[in-house]
């Protein structure tokens, strides 16, 4: 059983939902990324999503785009990100780490080479934004052969046929994009999320996390009432944009409030 599976099994036995924060590796500076990862865990994170900086994003809003630009200015590459995970693992061997990004860096490295390096570093899952299930079969097979969970996105517009295709390939969890638009968008409609999740769960046997549009405790609590996990990204990256001084403490404090609210969602 993978670290991701173990985490969800433990949380389900406690009637709790996973808190999954996202940060961009190398933002605002590579020297603080590992410290920030530990700070997120201290604030209640159950799984970490670590963004791999990329120059041409298609799903990221302006906040995360700027984070990638800042990290790229420091020369942060996929290999550097793997090094950060390996450093994190020196102190934390339990919290799952998922790399989130785009296909090009992995294509350039080669999926076999990447998978071997990712396992050695301590990566548990990979979410590739621009890799649809129709084109993912060979790549997913390589990831799974090395014990890495391939995580897929589903959206409000996803057709049943594609939900079924994702259900056949995905492992760990599935990330449901809660609204049309890019990361950091607003106007999250919980009733719409609830309705779509009920359809998705007819075909999936693994947990479903919800992200995009979650930036405060009230929304996180509402999502936690209907989903298996809550994913928060842009709100955290805004803290990084404010500067590295005190960043770790700010993130711990913010997540602590989110975690407390989530823990009352199904009380």
From TrEMBL:
<dbReference type="GO" id="GO:0004834">
    <property type="term" value="F:tryptophan synthase activity"/>
</dbReference>
<comment type="function">
    <text>The alpha subunit is responsible for the aldol cleavage of indoleglycerol phosphate to indole and glyceraldehyde 3-phosphate.</text>
</comment>
<comment type="pathway">
    <text>Amino-acid biosynthesis; L-tryptophan biosynthesis; L-tryptophan from chorismate: step 5/5.</text>
</comment>
<keyword id="KW-0057">Aromatic amino acid biosynthesis</keyword>
<dbReference type="InterPro" id="IPR018204">
    <property type="entry name" value="Trp_synthase_alpha_AS"/>
</dbReference>
<dbReference type="InterPro" id="IPR013785">
    <property type="entry name" value="Aldolase_TIM"/>
</dbReference>
<feature type="active site" description="Proton acceptor">
    <location>
        <position position="60"/>
    </location>
</feature>
<keyword id="KW-0456">Lyase</keyword>
<protein>
    <recommendedName>
        <fullName>Tryptophan synthase alpha chain</fullName>
        <ecNumber>4.2.1.20</ecNumber>
    </recommendedName>
</protein>
<dbReference type="InterPro" id="IPR011060">
    <property type="entry name" value="RibuloseP-bd_barrel"/>
</dbReference>
<keyword id="KW-0822">Tryptophan biosynthesis</keyword>
<comment type="similarity">
    <text>Belongs to the TrpA family.</text>
</comment>
<keyword id="KW-0028">Amino-acid biosynthesis</keyword>
<feature type="active site" description="Proton acceptor">
    <location>
        <position position="49"/>
    </location>
</feature>
<comment type="subunit">
    <text>Tetramer of two alpha and two beta chains.</text>
</comment>
<dbReference type="InterPro" id="IPR002028">
    <property type="entry name" value="Trp_synthase_suA"/>
</dbReference>
<dbReference type="Pfam" id="PF00290">
    <property type="entry name" value="Trp_syntA"/>
</dbReference>
